[in-house]
Amino acid sequence: MKIYTKTGDKGQTGLIGGRTDKDDIRVETYGTIDEVNSFIGKAMTELDSTIFKDVLEDLETIQHELFDCGGDLANVSNRRVYKMTDEPIEAMEKRIDVLVEEGPVLERFILPGGTSAAATLHIARTITRRAERQMVTLMKTEEDVPAVVQRYLNRLSDYLFAAARVANAREKVSDVEYLRSAKVFKNVGSVKEEGK
């Protein structure tokens, strides 16, 4: 079986129900979601399965959900049935709350880094934020776009931030605070990343 089709050699790609240019904002958005998924896969290879079983289970679920998001965005057919719902968002919120409670007290912004896994999760987080920005642009330019994907990406960036902090904490590696940051986080239970 050949994996190349040559159908994209003129700068277009196939959607579910049509074709479009490869630099179309829709393609940019689900392509960025694929990038997030790849970095999550990398993070999973860097997490010790004996101490991160719960996080690894979360991340595998998230990988499937990101495929659902991408598939929904690639669907421009007249009979669209979207896979994504708000249910995964609600489940993720519960996990975020658990991880935030486990992580050390946060008062200032932190620098991305620490363990390899934490650094990779921070990369995934920032790419998720880019995907969300692209999603907002897509929603402004096209009418029938599943807005649940934007909400999912918004929550996913919070999850990845919390997971990165736990990745450091369980390995007993301290986060590095941004030195010129004021104490910006008053309520640890509602920690949000910068720009949220």
Automatic annotation (TrEMBL):
Q: What class of enzyme is it?
A: transferase
Signal sequence bounds: none
* Coiled-coil ranges from the UniProt annotation: none
Which Pfam family is an annotated match for this chain, by its short name? Cob_adeno_trans
In which domain of life is the source organism classified? Bacteria
**Could you tell me what reaction this enzyme catalyses?**
2 cob(II)yrinate a,c diamide + reduced [electron-transfer flavoprotein] + 2 ATP = 2 adenosylcob(III)yrinate a,c-diamide + 2 triphosphate + oxidized [electron-transfer flavoprotein] + 3 H(+); 2 cob(II)alamin + reduced [electron-transfer flavoprotein] + 2 ATP = 2 adenosylcob(III)alamin + 2 triphosphate + oxidized [electron-transfer flavoprotein] + 3 H(+)
Enzyme Commission identifier(s): 2.5.1.17
Keywords of the record, alphabetical order, are: ATP-binding, Cobalamin biosynthesis, Nucleotide-binding, Transferase
User: Residues in domain Cobalamin adenosyltransferase-like?
Assistant: 3-167
Q: Which GO terms describe its biological process?
A: cobalamin biosynthetic process
User: Which pathway, metabolic or otherwise, does it act in?
Assistant: Cofactor biosynthesis; adenosylcobalamin biosynthesis; adenosylcobalamin from cob(II)yrinate a,c-diamide: step 2/7
Q: Annotated Gene Ontology MF terms?
A: ATP binding; corrinoid adenosyltransferase activity
Family listed: Belongs to the Cob(I)alamin adenosyltransferase family.
Q: Subunit comment for this entry?
A: Homotrimer.
Q: Kindly provide the name given to this protein in its UniProt entry.
A: Corrinoid adenosyltransferase
Source species of the chain: Psychrobacillus glaciei
What taxonomic classification does the UniProt entry list for its organism? Answer: Bacteria, Bacillati, Bacillota, Bacilli, Bacillales
